[in-house]
Structure prediction request, 589 residues.
Amino acid sequence: MDVEVTALSNDVWADNPLGLDGSRVIDRRIYVDPQIFAAEQEKIFAKTWQWVAHESELPAFGDYITGTVAGRPIVVSRGDEGRISAFLNTCTHRGAVLAPHQRGNSAGSFVCFYHGWCFDTEGKFTAAPLASAYGENLRKACYDTPQVRHDVFAGNVFVCLDPDVQPLAEFLGAAGKHIEAYTGRHEALGRVRWLLKGNWKLWHENFRDNYHPMFTHRTIGANYQGVKIQGANIDLTGGHSLLAFPSQGNPEPIKSLMKTLTGIPAAEGVGNHRPRQGNLEYSHNIMAVFPNLDFQFQMSGAGGGYLQHVTPTSVDRAVVELVVFGEVGEPPEARQARLDRFLDAQASSGKISGDDTEAARRCAAGFGTVGEVRWSNMDRGQEPGLQGGKNDEYSLRGFYDAYKAYMGDSLVAE
Amino acid sequence: MPANLADIAAAKHADAASAVDVEIERAVTALIYKIARLTDERDYVAWMGLFTEDGEYSAVTHENLVYKGLRLFRDVGRNALYERVAYLMGVWQVPRAKTLHLVSNVEVSAGESADSAQAVSNFIMTRTADLEHSVLHAAGRYIDRFERQGGAWRIRDRLVVVDSNMLPPEFTELL
Prediction:
């Protein structure tokens, strides 16, 4: 299915009391309505390419990783001659999942623990115990687990439940060249995941919104004091986007903030323990891929980065999973430093993402008012075109252009 | 610190350790309980004071402990601990909540000198947020190394191994 994501003739959000174009508002019902959530699963998650693993996480024959796409349990498996396969994670006999763990090794055969039916590394049915009791009725081909369309891009394994959507590279569009730069020569070093108390879009939006950091993250706010903020917010079309900005600001206001909070003067070096790249232009990239994936990579200095994908479990709960990457062959000291400190700001324990997680929780709580306060403003950046300043909302608007195109008549104008 | 995370995962640390003087065991065990109490009292500055100047506080999920050793964070030295204290005292806008640590199964063993010791212990931690009931927030293992400086025992390093591979949304409290 090819979706036209740029030209909407009848914008379902056009009739809003904020007096804004429909492409510049958000109807908050999309965060709370169970029927809209159900439609998202089938019209977005089942019809877009979904990241499930990086090839480096499946180095050996029999290695597998499991995931969930549009509510369906999925297995990605490494088989003969290094081939990657993807199939639904269910025994075709009675339904139990064949791969029970987040990651593991099948030793070449997925054996259902319930009645012992066996499947190879591609999910094909190979044998059932005591098969003679089935007589001539056990037609093997009927019992292969359904294959899931998959493709690999810059080491990233994507799957798509719909066999008719456009090829992966075409789907990624302008985002592709950035993904190649991020993960093409990298390997995954580990994952961390946490529960999000809020709708999945609240998390994904956060990586298209560079207006919030100076308020939500107090060290960033202090860091930016007196600074003319540089950077770009770019709609890459297709629902994808890029935020690019240099390291900027200075640590002195951070030290002052910490002294105020603790009552203890900050020593030399406090607030400045992370290396800065001075004025190297646009060294930090945050790229969002429709609908639920984002990459954050340093394009200079230590390099490396991470990706995150958010998987909804209900209209008001989701799981965020973060995968850290290091450069293949990097020096042991650099690798150890990455393993030790790279998550310092990330995950629900992180110095930055801890507050992002809180922002999702507070927005979700505030949406109890959706009957009275239905519309959110998404109007930052007035220049025409696809690109504005770091704090503008071109990226966010690009997401919702795509969102509305995929959702079609599931979003009802009232 | 037994920095080799694979060794820690294999639980070789405690098994390989030697017997410890009973007075040291008592002092170190008391220190472990004091860490828990100061944490639950939210006396973060006093908590920081229990570490040596070059002391270390880090955490890792069990999943990553046995994979490639990706830590949630690793604060090394007083400046890093000071930053964490500042975050706990208001840089983070995540509201602080009441916590309760229960620490048990403490096994203390001798260190490399008479002024050092190490210990492993188990913990469970509840968190009680405003207008919410208490929930089990984390469970896992402390792997500690201690030093005696000027007659007082201090934490040289603490590694917190978190059992769960699914973290709760508000995971910024001291573990």
Summary: Chain A touches chain B through 44 residues (CB under 8 Å). The longest strand of chain A covers residues 186-196. Chain A has a mean pLDDT of 92. The longest helix of chain A spans residues 353-366.
